Amino acid sequence: MRQSLLVIWMLILLSCSCRNGNPDREQPQKPGKNEMAEMNRFLVQKDREIIENYIERKGLTMKESPAGLWYMIEEEGEGNRLRDNDRIQIAYRCELIDGTFCYSSDESGPMQVTVGKSDIEPGLNEGLRLLKPGGKAMFILPPFLAHGLVGDGKKIPPRTIVVYRVTVIGSE
To answer: Of 34, 96, 133, 169, which has fewest CB within 10 angstroms of its CB?
Structure first.
């Protein structure tokens, strides 16, 4: 009995001594707006270097849009450029910049797209506006124009550069 009381008394003392913690210890600070902006600039620059190295390694001739989309028009197509609300079908192949295959119209059939409205990557929407019916292009989407910080939850990981090869095969 005495030993039980002694053990209980020791446990009470130990639990009381752990509550205060170390008041002198600094709490970690959350990054401020300036630090977040600096980190974002750093990540965008690193992505740009990866894309430029890819283009050079593959011997591609690509242009960069003001928004940061890299593109190469392989076939011009005919008619007017696609605009918002145009309904089209595209044949496509999507892969990661390291060549890992993700998606293809060969597997799932042509993608039905309403330009500017469909639930597709912002960079792909921007790239489609550069094409005409029958046009063919290659697009490189940095993460901020692709699936961003979270990926697509399936085959595209977070913060990943995506490469699309697209052909407009039909329009309404």
So the answer is: 34
Q: Is the pTM of this model over 0.85?
A: no
Q: Which helix (H) or strand (E) holds 163?
A: strand 162-171
99: in domain = yes
* DSSP-assigned letter for residue 143: G
In contact, 135 and 168? CB cutoff 8 Å: yes
- Asked, for residue 135, whether it belongs to a domain, the answer is yes
Strand partners, 171: 88
- Tokens linked to 124: 């792909």
Return the closest-CA partner of residue 50 out of 134, 123, 141. 141
Task: Give the domain range for residue 167.
Answer: 63-171
Q: How far is CA 172 from CA 66, 83, 121, 152, in A?
A: 29, 12, 21, 29
Q: Residue 133: which CATH number?
A: 3.10.50.40
Say if residues 82 and 171 touch (Cβ distance below 8 Å). yes
Number of structural domains found in the chain:
1
Percent of the chain at pLDDT > 70 equals 83
User: Which amino acid is present at 161?
Assistant: I
Length of the chain as a residue count: 172
**pLDDT value at position 16?**
62
The Cα 141–Cα 161 span in angstroms is 6
Residue type, 123: G
